[in-house]
Structures are given as structure tokens and as C-alpha cells.
């Protein structure tokens, strides 16, 4: 699936992720700026925070309990469309997804 990371102050990064991996993984493997993934995908750091474009929200698995807790601890404000990138699975059923990278992760 294609993941488009919209950057706050530069053109978007368009990357290809592997189905079955996470949106965070796709970012880190392609050196997308602003997605850190410090805990390696354990829902324990919130440095993979993204704002999912609204039209894709319903296509994703619901927010899990750990994710919900960690989203309370993001560096940039939590919005209704906030998700942890490591908890968003890429799936061929959704060939393209757009997210905004928050202005800060620390
Ligand atoms: Fe740490 Fe997602 S990589 S919470």
C-alpha cells in the first residue's frame, strides 16, 4: 500500500509499505522525517503519532486500549484523527492512505 506523509513544512513523502506491517515501519524504513518510532512499535513512546486524513479513519481497526492511553501522551496535541503509526496496519484492502505528520514528536 502507498502511504502519503504530509509534512508540516515541506512536500509530502510518498512511500510504499508492505501489507501486514505498520504505517510507522513504512515511515522508518523510508527515513520519513518526523516519525521516530522510538519504542519499535510497542505503543509505548508516542513518537509515531500521526493525524489520519478523515476519509480513511473508518477504514482502520479501532484504537486499542494501550494505544488510547499512549495517545494521551503525545508531544503535539491529540485530535480526533490521531493514531499511533505503529498500531495502524497496512493492508492491501486499503491501497492508499494519507496522514499528516505532527509538527513535533518530542
Ligand atoms: Fe512507539 Fe509507536 S513506535 S508508540
UniProtKB/TrEMBL annotation:
One Gene Ontology MF term: electron transfer activity
Protein name: Ferredoxin, 2Fe-2S
Family under the similarity heading: Belongs to the adrenodoxin/putidaredoxin family.
Keywords: 2Fe-2S, Iron, Iron-sulfur, Metal-binding
Cofactor: [2Fe-2S] cluster
UniProt keyword Signal present: no
PANTHER family: FERREDOXIN-2, MITOCHONDRIAL (PTHR23426:SF65), FERREDOXIN/ADRENODOXIN (PTHR23426)
Domain 2Fe-2S ferredoxin-type: 1-105
Keyword Iron (UniProt): yes
Biological process annotations from GO: P450-containing electron transport chain
Parts of the chain that traverse the membrane: none
Organism: Geodermatophilus amargosae
Pfam families from the UniProt entry: Fer2
Domain of life according to the entry: Bacteria
Gene Ontology annotations for the cellular component aspect, listed alphabetically: cytosol
